Amino acid sequence: MSEAPILSVEDLAVGFTGPDGRRTRAVDGVSFSVAPGRTLGIVGESGCGKSVTSLAVMGLLPRTGTSVTGRVLFDGRDLLTESERTLRDLRGDRLAMIFQEPMTSLNPSYTIGDQIVEAIVRHRAVGKREAAERAVEMLARVRIPEPARRFHDYPHRLSGGMRQRVMIAMALACEPRLLIADEPTTALDVTIQAQILDLMRALREETGTAVVLITHDLGVVAEVCDDVAVMYAGQVVERAPVEELFRFPQHPYTVGLLGSLPRFDRARGRLAAIEGTVPDMSRPPAGCRFAARCPFRITRCETMPDLVEIGGDRATRCWRAPLEELAA
Amino acid sequence: MKPLASSPAPVLEAHDLVKHFVAERTLLGRTTASVKAVDGVSLAVHAGETLALVGESGCGKSTLGRMVLRLVEPTSGRIVVDGADVTHARERDLRGLRRTAQIVFQDPFASLNPRMTVGEILAEPLMLHAIVPPAQRAARVAELLAGVGLNPRQAARFPHEFSGGQRQRIVIARALAVEPKVIVCDEPVSALDVSIRAQILNLLEDLQARLGLAYVFISHDLGVVRHIADRVCVMYLGRIVETGTTDEIFDNPRHPYTRALLSAIPAPSPLARRERRLLEGDVPSPLAPPSGCHLRTRCPHAEPVCAEARPPLAAVSPTHASACLFATRLPDARDLAPREPARDPRLETLFAAFAGDDEAAAAQAAAQ
């Protein structure tokens, strides 16, 4: 982690006010950073706030009924204080995003070539012809066969995997410094997922783009990430380099997540299951938010622990860390 | 656990099942194109056994699962459930089949009537099939809820008051209401979060051990399949390309498609990242699959002979068969599926603290 981070999120909090006036804190005091050429995985289950975090970074949350506080430093500027106009110039240029569902992210009425050209022309002072050349080059780069012919295809002519390749080509067309990928392979079949993950890994090496990968799948994290932030109920509960996280997690929630993965070494036997459900975020508990489901809770867990640095680029939000001692 | 060839008759058998869906018709209704969604598939499941059907979108696994329950009418073939041929059973005779064989779908949100309470949802099959006398229905509903780790006092609630994992428990309780012998589970955990997925998989295994249920487990997730299945059928474009015990499929795959699937499984840890051998390109259109072996256009081992005829599912061992002409000549492939990395024994101790049992789950549900 020698290089200065391209993105650093500090104490980000997002609250929504519903039509009934009820306030929900979707994201609460989230901090993380990612350096050029690194991939940060943000992992967590439905409703943990991982997607809201990424939308807040991109400035894509609705303005009404939403409060966003904290700092989102991108390339030295705080995006939360920038105008919508500046953000529009940044998005698709130095800041790009791809989503889970490639069909709904592409306009069905335009050819994929036209859509990539549009993205390039919007941000670069180039003519249509030059942009078209660049678009074909990008299609080739994401390993789409016969790119010059595919350029003229409409999205419905492409399979799910090919569409996600087109989305990646479009996102990378302007050589972004940061790519946010929100569940990019979740809608794809396993063999296609593997192709896309391999592609993302190769492209990161070729371009040096920093990547924030949002996922619920620890397998995807294991395959492509350098660093991981684990989110639970709107907070980062653990942060670590990927090997360290898998070697010995330092938050009980991460332990439960890892233990609930089916094993390859013993076919049968009970999986670790995190019993219960996530807390209601309009009335989050005052103490540790995982305590109600945690087998290691103690009285102290009734007060909220901070996310504390524990050395080796790691941090955890647990009173009981280091967890190795619990096993003694 | 694993029944041998000499074990009693299977609870569910399918012989050479075929399903064609019409894709295009002329103005007068004559079929001009059809998809062979299931193209000559046979299988058998025994009591207490889990048979997994795996494959990617469009391979026909869900159609097959629905067909054995007569939810989709077969074009040809034979279905035998609990010794009775139900292939041509009429609608009113299907009630017996519904008592023996049930289904659990992927989406627990779409599978429950939002206007009925959970108690009503569970009482309905008890009433339809006259499982218990009316006076005992409420008690039976409570038993069913407790049996899947839910609080019996929640019977008066509506489905929207439950989380996804709890709804899937309700769906499972409803399937169990008629005391079936076999349950087709169609991607039962795919819509659930990882930690909830583990709860449901544990529940399915507990129920199987307790009730001797047979499962036909349809899934695209090979990690889950490795965990839960006794035997596996791998499907590609409507056909079974390989079948065997779970160990045979994962440790000694004898079909190039199985190998590609195993190779695509994400590693369980960054310490277990491995070289991958992936297939090129996408699945061909099921409207016009390649002649002979359907995989040959993407297969690294294909030879001209593969285009000539459909390769038969040929035995590799008494329990293992592959539809590849070169099944026995394929190179060794023991390292395709991910290996579990060596774990710190202290971490295993922590995992064990999470490996709760159903009583714990029920206690938790009661506390809510």
CATH architecture of the largest domain in chain B: 3-Layer(aba) Sandwich
Q: What oligomeric state do these chains adopt?
A: heterodimer
Major sheet strand order of chain A: 6-7-8-3-9-10-12-11
CATH homologous superfamily of the largest domain in chain A - what is it? P-loop containing nucleotide triphosphate hydrolases
Work out the helicity level of chain A.
Answer: 25-40%
Number of structurally distinct domains of chain A: 2
Helicity level of chain B: 25-40%
Measured on Cα atoms, how large is the radius of gyration of chain B? 22 Å
Can I get a quick summary?
The complex is a heterodimer of chains A (328) and B (368). Chain A has 328 residues and is an alpha/beta fold. Chain A has eleven helices and twelve strands.
Layout of strands and helices, then pairs:
The complex is a heterodimer of chains A (328) and B (368).
Chain A: E1 7-17, E2 23-34, E3 39-43, H1 50-58, E4 66-74, E5 77-78, H2 84-90, E6 95-98, H3 102-105, H4 112-123, H5 128-141, H6 147-150, H7 160-172, E7 178-182, H8 190-207, E8 210-215, H9 218-224, E9 227-232, E10 235-241, H10 242-247, H11 252-259, E11 308-311, E12 314-316
Parallel strand pairs in A: 3-8, 3-9, 6-7, 7-8
Antiparallel strand pairs in A: 1-2, 1-4, 4-5, 9-10, 10-12, 11-12
Chain B: E1 12-25, E2 31-45, E3 50-54, H1 61-67, E4 76-81, E5 84-85, H2 94-100, E6 101-104, H3 118-128, H4 137-147, H5 164-177, E7 182-186, H6 194-211, E8 214-219, H7 222-228, E9 231-236, E10 239-245, H8 246-251, H9 256-264, E11 314-317, E12 320-322, H10 345-354, H11 358-367
Parallel strand pairs in B: 3-8, 3-9, 6-7, 7-8
Antiparallel strand pairs in B: 1-2, 1-4, 4-5, 9-10, 10-12, 11-12
Helix pairs in contact in B: 3-4, 3-5, 4-5, 5-6
